[in-house]
Design brief:
Length: 316
Amino acid sequence: MRPKLVVDYLVYLIVRIFICVVQATALSVCARASKFLAWLANDVLKIRGKLVDQNLKHAFPDLTADQRHKLARRSWYHLCLMVCEIAHAPRKLHDTNWHKSIQMHDIHVQIEQALGRRPVVVLLGHFGNFELMGYCTGLLGFPTYTVARPLDNPFLHKYLEEFRSATGQIILPKQGSAPYIEKVLEQNGTLALLCDQNAGPKGCWVEFMNRPASYHKAISVFSMTSGAPVVFLYMRRIGGPMQFEMGVEGIYDPARDGAKGVKEVTQWYNDMLERVVRRDPEQYWWVHNRWKDDRPATKRRKEQEKKEAARVAQAA
């Protein structure tokens, strides 16, 4: 066995042992442990501290340094508790008791779309417990096709894929999945995608939380070429552990709202994501370098000048 595979397997064993310990621990205890781990990561180890503070400073310029610090700690608490909830989900959430953990908000709209005779593109952000969203939609009888990048560790990848597909969610690889996606849309299937992943300098650049961010153009193209409505969903924590609200934040339907370009559709679903993030900012992944701008300096300057000109014209 190659050295890398040995290391990968040892990491996999450590993760599995950790998950077993979490599963054997009451969720109430997990919540208290998550508070300690959040303090440790944020206040002591200061993991990605500068990046998190910079992200919060741009997104919420009116917050003081102390307020940003407390918000960062709450964000770490959410991340730690999210891991615990995912570990407990196969034992805690079933088709007979999911309603005890999940409240629905305007979800009937999504159900109507899923039961229609058109394809549907469902979008989520790195917000709330997005991993449980696909798991729970499967429980409700609405399996989705989800595009996800394979993990570098093949053992962890197989384990995570088994969790994701346990209730009917079908995972498509990020590379080479275009023919499968085309077939899903042709057969009026439901395609679920994380919309806030960095697409690099050649992506579609739109405003998100007071800064430009790069997005994959394919998300908008899927809707434009198939006529599929784009449904923005969220799953936010509303109480203690394993207590969520699942809801529809907005729908863009080309048949109803008229055809839009790639940039317009991209800006629309970013506005939806920004709305849910601003309501519950501690439930967003601020540790993620979402606003990495690796475009050439000239292109960034021209984009900024264009934005300033648009603001001046709007004010006039």
